[in-house]
Design a protein that fits this description.
This protein is an all-beta fold and 212 residues long.
């Protein structure tokens, strides 16, 4: 014949759909596996710590002045006022710094410390220190070591009435506790003061001798 039939079309048919995209090793966008904001592992407000107050009642206790100062006539008051629930322990305004010292006689587990100021008292700085058993003899009034102290901040009292402060001490073994009050004063009269101190924790059980 004069012309052969066309066996091949003028344009090759597409073997792939026009919208086909070659496969890639990774998808064009990876699924989000991590939330945009990580969930908090802790509640926004920590649950209240439960203190076992009353450890101060098992210690010898004394209030002392720094730098070998002496008390004026009529002072110091009985330190027992500091461990009573409703009381006042007065300090003259011209004695703005005091240490309250405690000795349990053996190592206790201390979990916290608390104090309550008297009426309109202001105090520039309050700290509480703990120290381990140094093997020293138990005395009343106590004799505290000069080293080995670990300190915790109780802040200050700048305004208010009968202000309370407390701090958590994370289950630390200690025989001695010392409160350090610096810059105490009251505009109400000639004395500033405290209403109460408390220490939380416990004295571990002692080994009892076996009966023969």
């Amino acid at each position: 014949p004069s012309s052969l039939p066309t066996k091949v079309p003028t344009s090759s048919p597409s073997l792939l759909p026009s919208s086909y995209l070659p496969a890639t090793d990774q998808p064009s966008s990876l699924p989000t596996k991590v939330p945009t904001s990580s969930p908090s592992l802790l509640p926004s407000i920590s649950p209240s710590f439960i203190h076992n107050w009353g450890l101060e009642n098992y210690a010898s206790l004394e209030v002392v002045l720094p730098n070998q100062q002496t008390w004026p006539s009529g002072f110091p008051q009985s330190e027992n006022k500091l461990t009573e629930e409703v009381s006042e322990y007065y300090v003259p305004n011209d004695r703005p710094n005091i240490d309250v010292e405690l000795d349990f006689g053996r190592e206790a587990i201390v979990t916290g410390a608390f104090f309550k100021s008297w009426y309109v008292t202001k105090i520039n700085s309050i700290q509480v220190g703990i120290a381990p058993d140094d093997g020293g003899a138990y005395t009343d009034p106590p004799t505290l070591p000069s080293s080995g102290w670990q300190w915790y901040d109780l802040g200050s009292v700048t305004s208010g009435y009968n202000v309370e402060r407390q701090v958590i001490i994370p289950n630390i073994g200690a025989r001695y506790v010392k409160y350090r009050f610096v810059g105490g004063i009251s505009s109400y009269g000639t004395n500033w003061g405290l209403r109460q101190i408390q220490v939380s924790g416990y004295l571990p059980a002692t080994d009892q001798p076996s009966s023969l």
